[in-house]
Structure formats: C-alpha cells, structure tokens
Predict the 3D structure of the following.
Amino acid sequence: MQMKDNGLEWRVIVSDRGKAIGRALREFTPEAIHQRDVWHVIHEGQKVQEKIDRAVKVLHQRTPAVERNAKRIEEGGKPLGRNPQTDVRAHLLDVQHMDYIATSLRYLCDSPPTVARYCRAKRSSHSDKSREI
C-alpha cells in the first residue's frame, strides 16, 4: 500500500503465485498481470516428471507378469493377480505411450538447457539453506 501511495505502480508481477501475494495483488492492483516465475514452473514440471517416470518404471516391471498371464490363458488357465492384464500387445502399447509422454515432458522440463541449469542450481541452493536451519 505504501508503494502505491508514493506513486509506484506496476503492470506485471512475477512471483511463486502464492495465495497471500495473489490476494494482495487482486486487492491493490487488480489490473496487473500476475505470472509465475520460471523456477516454479520448471519445478512443478519436474515433480510431474518424477511421477511419470515412476509410472513408466512400474509398467516396465509389469511386462513379465502380463506375458505370464497371457501364456496361462493360452494354456487354458486363469490369470493370476488382482485386475490381471493378459493382452501383451495392449500392455506394450501402454508402455510405449508412457515412454513417449515421459520423453516429451523431459524435453519440456530440461529445455532450454540454461533454464534447466538455473532451476537445478536454485533447487540445490534451496536445499542447502534448509540444511543450515
């Protein structure tokens, strides 16, 4: 409020888009554009990347079980496990699709290289500060 009383105005604000700063900006400068800074955008993308990578790993690990269940079905048996998948081709398409998603997201999270390096450096400096406390 003091800044606005002294004649300082802004059109664009870059922050982590926290709730408190968002409320303050809507109250004092509702016409200003509020956008998220690059570090937080990349950081959110990296969290999604980690989840996708775990999902890809699980799918790859399930491939032998799907193949065993398909073989059991061919031999006239019943598949084992909870919600067993028996279609190897469909499973491999799922694996391929998830690999594609993971690769595409990795491209977005790591490009351009200077931004990714900056984000990794900021992330490590944040973790160093938390260790000091």
